[in-house]
DNA sequence: GCGGCTGGGTGACACAGTCACAGACGGGCC
DNA sequence: GGCCCGTCTGTGACTGTGTCACCCAGCCGC
């Protein structure tokens, strides 16, 4: 069975196109692998099959912020920018887990864009989604307080009512500094909304956090 | 002569397509006209011929930030989002000057996406450019100090060595509050880099401003 | 037990955003 | 001219954030 069957976005792809795509090899990516860094030219169009890739923006002071994450079935949009618009991208992509991905070489990619409506729709959809998510992120960074972003992130990532992450990891995800996260978490703990342990935040009052998360987000 | 000749991005468009597009009417947009607001469904794909349209993100406190500007020959990308991805966009577009634009209805737009490689490339290019500019904006907002953004904006908008704008307008463009702009401008004036008059900032030391603008941007 | 490493806490300080005002200027109106 | 009113600008106070420079507490391997 070709990997194509595992990429939902490409369901219904034309048979002729599928034949061209299906033979491309699936590459494994070890956890922690850096997929690209600023200034590097795009080698092709990447489709993620399993795992999770996180793309960060890195500031001059070393502070980082999570730009977006690539989930299975999605493509790495930044690589497309290089193929279409031409400009270098800023930001760094890191495999957050072990991953499998397919790299579509540039010439095949361009040919598919001309030949396959399904493929085109797939690429466009990915673009639209990214643009929207980046704008949403901008809105949060520009207008929302840290407390609010923190609460939202905790609720978002809670597995079994707890988040396993260091303060530094949380800080990176919401685009602030570790100390700030520590202080805010401390405040939340004092308010009885969470419990803190080394490398783990346990949620005690999800409703309270939800209230904070909505506080100045109000979208 | 059709308006098509005035849209550089569409140069080289296929004759058959041109015939379909060329007869669409050119609409005038008065200065200050609001093109769309959050939640509104996209009516079609807009191509700007003359003038300038500015798109703002608006926070819950009423603070605004300039997301991007649409220049002649460019398209309104947000409207495309609605046609492709489906989600509503946030943000508000306002005609900064009197404008002329062409509205391509949804069905024609979708047909062109399938039929015309040139049109496709035009739309894709616009997308890529927007995504990149929004990411660059995010980077500035997340990592750059107000002083730096202010200096960059002044240099950017200086006509004849002066910027005609109120502090409020400047604040909106760089995504901060009026008071902050007033204070920063005051500091720049004390440092001899600018001269302040009502509704006008005169640049006295462009090199000094350039140094500030590059300070923590370092791209 | 010891040393080093990582995660977490703290205090000090500068910058930014918000609120609440107070002046200052300009243009229209009499 | 003098007056009024709305817009633009300056200021002070206070809170939230980002950064720097530390220290402390666990944990691990040796």
TrEMBL record, chains A, B:
<keyword id="KW-0804">Transcription</keyword>
<dbReference type="InterPro" id="IPR050397">
    <property type="entry name" value="Env_Response_Regulators"/>
</dbReference>
<feature type="domain" description="Cyclic nucleotide-binding">
    <location>
        <begin position="29"/>
        <end position="130"/>
    </location>
</feature>
<dbReference type="InterPro" id="IPR018490">
    <property type="entry name" value="cNMP-bd_dom_sf"/>
</dbReference>
<dbReference type="InterPro" id="IPR036390">
    <property type="entry name" value="WH_DNA-bd_sf"/>
</dbReference>
<dbReference type="GO" id="GO:0005829">
    <property type="term" value="C:cytosol"/>
</dbReference>
<dbReference type="InterPro" id="IPR036388">
    <property type="entry name" value="WH-like_DNA-bd_sf"/>
</dbReference>
<dbReference type="InterPro" id="IPR012318">
    <property type="entry name" value="HTH_CRP"/>
</dbReference>
<keyword id="KW-0238">DNA-binding</keyword>
<dbReference type="InterPro" id="IPR000595">
    <property type="entry name" value="cNMP-bd_dom"/>
</dbReference>
<protein>
    <submittedName>
        <fullName>CRP/FNR family transcriptional regulator</fullName>
    </submittedName>
</protein>
<dbReference type="GO" id="GO:0003700">
    <property type="term" value="F:DNA-binding transcription factor activity"/>
</dbReference>
<dbReference type="Pfam" id="PF13545">
    <property type="entry name" value="HTH_Crp_2"/>
</dbReference>
<dbReference type="Pfam" id="PF00027">
    <property type="entry name" value="cNMP_binding"/>
</dbReference>
<dbReference type="GO" id="GO:0003677">
    <property type="term" value="F:DNA binding"/>
</dbReference>
<feature type="domain" description="HTH crp-type">
    <location>
        <begin position="144"/>
        <end position="207"/>
    </location>
</feature>
<keyword id="KW-0805">Transcription regulation</keyword>
<dbReference type="InterPro" id="IPR014710">
    <property type="entry name" value="RmlC-like_jellyroll"/>
</dbReference>
């Amino acid at each position: 069975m070709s990997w194509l069957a595992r990429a939902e976005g490409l369901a219904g792809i034309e048979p002729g196109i599928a034949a061209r795509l299906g033979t491309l090899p699936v590459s494994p990516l070890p956890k922690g692998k850096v997929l690209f860094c600023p200034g590097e030219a795009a080698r092709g169009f990447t489709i993620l099959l399993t795992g999770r890739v996180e793309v960060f923006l890195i500031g001059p002071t070393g502070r980082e912020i999570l730009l977006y994450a690539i989930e299975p079935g999605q493509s790495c949009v930044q690589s497309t920018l290089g193929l279409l618009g031409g400009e270098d991208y800023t930001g760094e992509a890191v495999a957050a887990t072990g991953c499998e991905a397919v790299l579509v070489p540039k010439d095949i990619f361009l040919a598919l864009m001309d030949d396959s409506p399904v493929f085109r729709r797939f690429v466009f959809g990915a673009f639209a989604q990214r643009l929207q998510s980046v704008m949403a992120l901008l809105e949060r960074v520009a207008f929302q307080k840290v407390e609010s972003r923190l609460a939202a992130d905790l609720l978002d990532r809670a597995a079994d009512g707890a988040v396993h992450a260091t303060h530094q990891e949380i800080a990176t995800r919401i685009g602030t500094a570790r100390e700030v996260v520590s202080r805010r978490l401390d405040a939340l703990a004092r308010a009885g909304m969470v419990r803190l342990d080394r490398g783990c935040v346990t949620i005690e009052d999800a409703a309270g956090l939800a209230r904070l998360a909505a506080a100045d987000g109000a979208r």
